[in-house]
Amino acid sequence: MSGETRDVVEELLGRMVKGDHDRTAELFAEPVDWQLNWPAEGHPAVPWIRPRSGRAEVADHFRSLEAHHVPELNGTSVTRILVDGADAVVFGEIVQTVRENGAAYTSPFALHLTVEDGLVTRYHIYEDSLTVARALSA
Questions:
Q1: In angstroms, how far apart are the furthest CA atoms of the chain?
Q2: d(CA 63, CA 110)
Q3: Element (H, E) at 107
Q4: How far apart (Å, rounded) are the C-alpha atoms in residues 135 and 128?
């Protein structure tokens, strides 16, 4: 199981890097347990932060994220992937530049994924939401 989990996680990260949002979404189960560590009401400056449950919504999340940033300046990196059975935790650093105002920001992140039957059933990301909101509100 751990090998399958690692393979799916690495494929997911690869598709995310390529910006192939529909192919990225194909790796998610329907429904998916989706959670971002933001207040339930989200933040008006950060429109991609909202509940998601299906592949179309997952693809929309990544499209919206890309639309609000300068992809050529994305320096996000993964520093470690830990796998335990069906669960994986990805650690790294988000490095983005806001398209609208040019504000650059950096945030550590941890992404908890669960893989079942070759699909991502859980996507919980923990990041410095205050730093992201401030950059998009600048």
A1: 44
A2: 21
A3: strand 104-116
A4: 11
